[in-house]
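Continuing the series of single-chain predictions for the mutant panel. This is the parent chain; the variants come on the following pages.
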Amino acid sequence: MKLASGLQTQRTEYLLRLGDNALILSQRLCEWCGHAPMLEEDLALSNIALDLLGQARMWLDAAGRDMTPVKSEDDLAYLRDVQAFRNVLLVEQDKGNFADTQIRQFLFDSWHYLVLRELTNSSDEEIAAIASKALKEVTYHLRRSSRWVVRLGDGSPQSHELCRQAIERYEIYVNELFEMDELEQVIESQGIGCDLAALYPEWLTYVNDVLRNATLKPLHPTLALSGGKRGQHGEALVGLLMEMQFLVRAHPGAQW
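Parent structure:
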């Protein structure tokens, strides 16, 4: 798909947003490896992390091929500073406890599913193809995280309270998911991306249906923190990148 130079740059930035969301959340989920409350869950969270990593590789590879000079997926993952990452703030927050992880995953999965569903109709053939492949995996992610929210919310008093606290912790990051800044508006107007704001009613209806089944209060996001899509991140991402990027930066140019 041949685009004017300005639009090509915006497309690349858009691909980074998609790729960084998947990459950073994948890294957060990897922190559960060996620490989940049961072996089955240890494997399940690791597999979801691998799914997201595979999606990140596709998005970042597509973004890097259009850069000058061309950058590989590894360049983009390991050699960018924190301000160059374009993920939403929700995915970079510390993993917290098990309820925190499942609530965060549920909020993201329910959004991610809708975005990928819309991107399968993108006028950009490469974006549509990646979205179609990723949607199959994310459909499973959403089904699974939804069930965990119900299981924990409608479980013991302790698990219910931990879910309530997790919702309170993460709801301030929700509105950024649906933020239509200038880049999102341009990409959507060209048929490449989707209207995030238009997805909000469907997302909120689904999320609140699940929360009610989990005996949790419906979500009513009001306060909002944003800026991640424009490279404005907190200390949580700094720490994550220090760990993720250490080996490559400590041995530049090494072949593994």
